[in-house]
# Entry
Amino acid sequence: MKKTLFVLFSAIILISVLFAGEKTAVPSVDQIVQKANLVAYYQGIDGKSKVAMTITDKQGRTRNRDFIILRKTIEQGGDQNYFVYFLSPADVRRMVFMVHKHTAADKEDDRWLYLPNLDLVKRIAAGDKRTSFAGSDFLYEDVSGRSLSEDKHELIDSNDAQFVIKNTPLKPETVEFSYYLVIIDRKNYMPMKMEYYDRNGKLYRIIETKKVEDISAKEGDKDVTYPTATEAIVKDLNTGSVTELKFSDIRYNLNLEDVFTERYLRRPPTEAMR
Amino acid sequence: MEIFGSCQLRKIVLFLSVLFPSVLLCAADDTNSPSAHNRFNLPVETHGFFELRSGYRTRNDKYEKDMSVMEGRLQLDLSSTTDWADFKVKGDVVGNGVTEQGEFDLREAYMFTRPSDWMDLKIGRQILTWGTGDMVFINDLFPKDWNSFFIGRDTDYLKSPSDAAKISLFSDAANLDIVYTPQFDPDRFIDGEYISYWNANLQRSAGRDAIVHTDRPDRWFRDDEIAARLYKNINNYEYALYAYHGFWKSPGGQNADNQSLFPDLNVYGASVRGEVGKGIGNAEIGYYDSADDRGGKNGYINNSEMRYLLGYTQELGVDLTGGIQYYVEQLMQYDDYKRTTQHAVRDEYRQLLTFRLTKLLMNQNLRMSMFAYFSPTDRDVYLRPDINYKFNDNLSWEAGANIFFGDYPHTFFGQFRDNTNVYTAIRYSF
# Structure
C-alpha cells in the first residue's frame, strides 16, 4: 500500500513537472529563427506560385505587377535558386529575373535578367539587396530571405500565441534599419509581422502576413501540408506607399528540373509560364 | 527600316509555307488525342503598343531633313503556346514622316519547340543576341539597325531580325547554339537616308544626295550565314567560344562600279563573364578574318581585324548602376592597308571607351541613363542621354538625345557630327 502510494505520488509529481515544463519550455532563439526561416522560405524541395502585386502610392495611384515565381532549394536553410517570370504590365511582359541565392557570408548572389525584345541575357551586378523589387515596397531581400547570419537575434517576448524576436544587424552600415522585430506564430512558426526601426528608433516599415493557408503537397508518397502565407502587405510609413501581395496557384514539390540556367532564361519552362 | 517589299514578301511566304505544313502535320498526327481540338483553336494572346516619336537635328545638316525621326508606330504581338510549341508573330505598322511612307516591319514570326531534354529549336524570323558587350559587339554577328540607334528609337530597335533557324543542344559537358541563316541578313546600315555619313569616294559628308547602293549577296542557301556558340557555366563564370561564317554585316568594301560590297567574313572568338569584386566583369575577343582580302593587298576590301573588349559593371548606390568598357580594334596588315588604300585614314589600333550610368527614381518609374562612347584615338564622342517616365502601367514618356562630337569628319562617330539630334516619344502599351 505504501509502495503504491509512493508510486502514485511520484507519478503525480512527475506529470505535473512535465506539464509545467511543457507549458513554459521555450525553444532557444536560434531554434526559433531557424524554424521560422524554413517555414517562410524553404517549404518543400521546390515550389511555384503566381503573384499579384499591387502598389498604391500616397496619392492612391495604383500599379500592378503579375509574375510567376519558381523556387528550388539546394540546401535546407542555405542556397536556393529563384526564377521570376513577369506576366504584366505589358512593358515587362516575358522578362525573366533569375537569382542564385548564396547564404555564405562572403558570397554574393548571382543575378540575371532576360530582356525578350533584344533576346539579351544580362548579368546584373550583385548589389544592395535592400533595394526595391520591381518598383514595389518589397525589397529583393524580402523576396528571397535575409541570411540569418547577418543579424544578432534576441527573444524579447514570448507568450502562448507568439514569439517576438529582435534582430540587430552585425554590419549596421550595410542596411537602412537599426533593428527589426519579427513576430512569429508559435503554433506554426510563420513570421506574421515584421517591424523595421530606423536609426532614431522610429518605426518606418511594416510587413504583415494577412492570410496563411495550408497547402497540401506530396513528400514522396506521403501527403503533407505546408502552412503558407498567401496574402501579405508592406507599408512604407515614410513614403505612404503600400504594396499588397496575393499568392495563388501555389504548388510544392513539382520535381523541377534544373531550370535556373541560361537555356530557360531565353525560353522559360512551362511551369513558369502558366 | 525595311519596307514590305517583294523580297520581304518572298521570305515571309517561304517562312509560312515551312511553318504551316508542319503545324498541320503535327496536328494530324494525333487527331485522336483529346487535345487535338486545341491545336486548331489556338489561344492567342494579343499585346503591343502604340507610340508617337519625333526628333529633330540640332545642327544644320545640308544632306538630311531637319526631322531626324517622325513616326507613329503600332506594334502587335500575337503569341500562342501549346503543349508542343510556341508561336509568335510581332510586327510594326509605321507611318514614317521622314521617308513619307507607310511601312510594315515584321519583327518576329517564329515557332519554338523543345523536342527533347537536350534540344531547343527556334525557326523563323527572330531577334538574336549573344556575347558580353554592352552596346559593343564582337562575336554577335546578328543584324543591327544603326539608323534606329542613332535617330533615337527605343534601344530594342538596335537589333533587327534574322530569318534563321536556331538549334540549341544541351549537355553536361557544354551547350551548343547553331544559327543558320539561309539568306544573308545584313545590318540596317547607315546608307544616307536617315543619317549623313563620310563618303570616302566623294571625300565629303553625304546623305540623301548619295544613298549607298550595295551589291548584297542574296542567293538562298548559297549566300548563307552560320553562327555557332559553344558555352558553359562553371561556378557562374560564363565561358563561350564563337565562330561565324558569312559576310561583313555592313558594307566592307566596294567594286569597280562604286557599289558597296559585303565581303566574305569569318569570325572566331571567345568570351568570359562573371563576378569580379563587387561587380560583373567581362572579357571578349574576336578575330575577323576578311576572307576576300586575307593578305590586305586589296585596298577596296576591309582588312582582317582583331577585336578586344574588357568591361566592368557595378552598383554604385541605391538603384544606381555604373559600367565601363575598353574596346580595341586592331587592323591587321596595317602597312598594306596604308599602301593600298587610297584614303587611308584609319589607325592601326582604334581604341574606344564606353561609360554607362543608370539611375532609377520615383519607385523605379523614372529612369535616367547616360551611355557615352569616347575614342581617344579617333578623337570622337557619342553621348546617349535618356529619360523615361512611366505615368502608369500603360503610358510612358521618353526624351533623349544623340550627341556626336569629333575632331575629324571621317571617324566612326565624328562623321555623324551634323546628325546630333533630340527626340521625345510617348507610348501606350497594352
